[in-house]
Amino acid sequence: MIIAGVDEAGRGPVIGPMVMAICAIPEEEEYKLKQMGVKDSKLLSPKQRNSMFEEIKKLCVHGIIILKAKDIDSALNNPSTNLNLLEAETSTKLTNAIKCDKVILDCPSTNISAYTNFVKAKIRKKDVKVIAEHKADLNHVIVGAASILAKVTRDREIEKIKKEIRVDFGSGYPSDPRTVAFLKDNWNKYDIFRKTWSTYKKLAEAKAQKGLGEF
Q: Domain 2-163, CATH 3.40.710.10 — does that match?
């Protein structure tokens, strides 16, 4: 049996992409991932994640999708979708692109059964067993492997953006003071911001009001 795991990195930031990844491996070879020390990427240091990245890619059939800020905004500006549905749609694309008998998804939704059924309906190979769980990246090593691919890819994309614009804006999360300061000064200068995020919208509205007051 070939088992697969899907996870994301960068769901919450106001800057940069969300990355989703899938890893698949014959079930009897999953122990190789455990031997390597694979686990939820949040429990590993950047050095550990980077050292495992290429090894996981060699060992597993894998796929990675990078959803840029504008892709996320485009989906969220559609009233019929939301971030959970975007994640579910991307999970099905990743699953449809590889061969597997079972796929385990790290579920972002509180309604696990609805999320599972949505993905099941869109997977072309109808005999694939779909399991959606909260904390799947913590509980299943194959999902941990996907979380490492997603996290390392996301971190590298953020570093690319910093080099392109020549500014270190921090992590890209709204809780990061450097990110907030950068957003405040540059909110209308780059296409790296998620404009559907409340952090961005509040700032843009405040700037627009200030502009009207000055006028």
A: no
Q: What's the CA gap between 50 and 42, in Å, rounded?
A: 13
Largest CA distance in the chain: 69
Is residue 125 within 8 A of residue 40, CB to CB? The reply is: no
Question: Tens digits of per-residue pLDDT, 102-133?
Answer: 999 999 999 999 999 999 999 999 999 999 99
Is pTM beyond 0.90? Reply is yes
SS3 at position 77: coil
Q: Enumerate the domain spans of the chain.
A: 2-163, 165-214
Find tokens 């998620």 and name the residue. 194
**Range 165-214 has CATH code 3.90.1150.200:** no
Name the 3-class secondary structure at 133.
strand
